[in-house]
């Protein structure tokens, strides 16, 4: 039973940190470990510390939870550093989105092909990227043997960047692959009996294996589409209230028909402008909410986050039992089990984002791919020679990788031209002057003074 030090950077993200604490408290193999909860927001930090202490006492779990605003204290001599921090909070990015839309860029200049997720900040994420790299530099100095677990978006770009620019053991984690369970349930299968494989880039993964009780289950998806999809969508359109309920949406089936494999999880939120041109388009493909990344769906998501914060705060202050707010046992998140596998050298297979290094054929070795891989005390053991159809490589992954490389180059080299080049590839851009004007206004925001100097 390993005792480790875990540094959580951005622990004030209550939606994420409460699940992390819950999973730790239900992992006795890590009892006795110290968990440093770091955030710059005093109120959020006090809340998550009080939550962790109260919940640990309630379930009889043994951890030392330490609240700190000092990032270096949280990182020093850590075995694991979890970066879940989002610079500036949601409202900072919403202000840039509003400016973008004023200049004709629906849902923001950051939205682009296969990257429509509202909090996946690439080209306008200068501070988010700088924060992630600063954290990594601190880990290199203060805990060079630690594992850096990248949770905060953009996982694809940041895992690639940090793996290239540092000597650290970097792994990105996401839960989008769990969409395979929704696929199974929709077509009437028990997810526990499903064997699946989903590979690609973070938020752009495809179902390359789908077996049920040893048999290929793709024909069952095809039968569902042919016989049941229309009735399912008719009911779904009448009752949809959760904007994330899109795994079996017309968009998912449309992508399957276009590219030959079923999209999994957050992949369905992406696609080309065919699915995202305006709210009406989104509603046709994603239901009445327009999906999680429309102006309607994203507002629901933000409101839900505030409601969860209030519920946790009220429960802690009133000293109500916390267990009823969570599932029995661990959630499906992989962060805590992965740390256990490494710390206790108990290898298991996880969905991870790591540099390719031959895992997926047809992609460079120095780009982060999302794959199932065995992880244990000796590190990540990648499978080799995984394959995707040429159509997905050519039309989806290579163009998506080009966008990632453009964003990485812009961040590392600075200058205004990479920002203009980004928008000159955007079908919403009618002239170079339009692209220049939107960036001029975004970079004039008072909170973007440093960003403006970088991109002058």
Total count of domains: 3
Task: Give the radius of gyration.
Answer: 22 Å
- Output the strand order for the largest sheet: 3-2-1-4-5-6
Q: Which whole number gives the mean pLDDT?
A: 97
Number of helices: 17
CATH superfamily of the largest domain: AglA-like glucosidase
CATH topology name of the largest domain: LDH C-terminal domain-like
Helix content: 40-55%
Listing every helix as H and every strand as E from the N terminus to the C terminus, the arrangement reads EHEHEHEHHEHEHEEEHHHHHHEEEHHHH
Description:
With 456 residues, this protein is an alpha/beta fold. It has helices spanning 14-25, 42-59, 71-75, 89-102, 126-142, 155-165, 179-186, 218-227, 229-239, 250-259, 279-286, 295-318, 335-343, 390-413, 417-424, 432-443, 449-454, and strands spanning 5-9, 34-38, 64-68, 80-83, 147-150, 169-172, 194-201, 204-212, 215-216, 348-355, 368-376, 379-381. It has three domains: 1-87 and 125-175 and 297-397, Alpha-Beta Complex (LDH C-terminal domain-like), CATH 3.90.1820.10; 177-293, no CATH class; 398-450, no CATH class. 45% of the residues lie in helices and 14% in strands. Strands 3-2-1-4-5-6 form a six-stranded parallel β-sheet, with helices on both faces. Strands 7-8-9 form a three-stranded antiparallel β-sheet, with helices on one face. Strands 10-11-12 form a three-stranded antiparallel β-sheet. Helix 5 (126-142) packs across helix 6 (155-165). The chain starts with a strand and ends with a helix. The relative contact order is 0.13. The mean pLDDT is 97.
């Amino acid at each position: 039973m390993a005792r480790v030090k875990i540094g959580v950077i951005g622990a004030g993200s209550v939606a994420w940190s409460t699940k992390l604490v819950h999973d730790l408290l239900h992992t006795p193999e890590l009892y006795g470990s110290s968990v440093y909860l770091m955030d710059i927001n005093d109120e959020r930090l006090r809340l998550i510390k009080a939550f962790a202490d109260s919940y640990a006492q309630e379930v009889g779990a043994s951890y030392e939870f330490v609240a700190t605003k000092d990032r270096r204290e949280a990182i020093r001599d850590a075995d694991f550093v979890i970066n879940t921090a989002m610079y500036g909070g949601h409202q900072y990015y919403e202000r840039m989105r509003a400016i973008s839309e004023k200049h004709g860029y629906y849902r923001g200049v950051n939205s682009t092909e296969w990257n429509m997720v509202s909090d996946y900040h690439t080209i306008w994420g200068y501070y988010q990227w700088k924060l992630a790299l600063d954290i990594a530099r601190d880990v290199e100095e203060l805990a060079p043997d630690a594992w850096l677990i990248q949770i905060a978006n953009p996982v694809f770009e940041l895992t690639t960047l940090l793996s290239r620019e540092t000597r650290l053991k970097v792994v990105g984690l996401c839960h989008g692959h769990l969409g395979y369970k929704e696929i199974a349930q929709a077509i009437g299968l028990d997810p526990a009996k499903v064997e699946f494989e989903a590979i690609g880039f973070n938020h752009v993964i495809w179902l390359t294996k789908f077996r049920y009780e040893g048999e290929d289950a793709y024909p069952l998806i095809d039968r569902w589409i042919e016989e049941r999809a229309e009735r399912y969508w008719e009911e779904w359109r009448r009752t949809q209230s959760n904007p994330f309920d899109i795994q079996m949406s017309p968009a998912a089936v449309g992508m399957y028909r276009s590219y030959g494999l079923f999209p999994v999880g957050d992949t369905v939120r992406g696609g080309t402008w065919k699915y995202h041109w305006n709210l009406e388009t989104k509603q046709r493909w994603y239901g009445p909410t327009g999906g999680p990344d429309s102006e309607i769906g994203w507002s629901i998501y933000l409101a839900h986050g505030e409601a969860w914060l209030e519920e946790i705060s009220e429960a802690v202050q009133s000293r109500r039992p916390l267990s009823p707010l969570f599932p029995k046992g661990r959630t499906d998140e992989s962060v805590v089990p992965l740390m256990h596998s490494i710390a206790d050298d108990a290898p298991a297979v996880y969905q991870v984002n790591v540099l390719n290094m031959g895992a997926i054929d047809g992609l460079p070795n120095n780009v982060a791919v999302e794959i199932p891989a065995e992880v244990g005390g000796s590190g990540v053991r990648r499978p080799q020679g995984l394959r995707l159809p040429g159509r997905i490589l050519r039309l989806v992954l290579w163009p998506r990788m080009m966008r990632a490389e453009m964003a990485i180059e812009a961040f590392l080299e600075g200058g205004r031209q990479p920002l203009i080049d980004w928008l000159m590839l955007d079908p919403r851009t009618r002239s170079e002057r339009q692209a220049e004007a939107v960036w001029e206004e975004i970079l004039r925001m008072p909170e973007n003074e440093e960003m403006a100097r970088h991109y002058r």
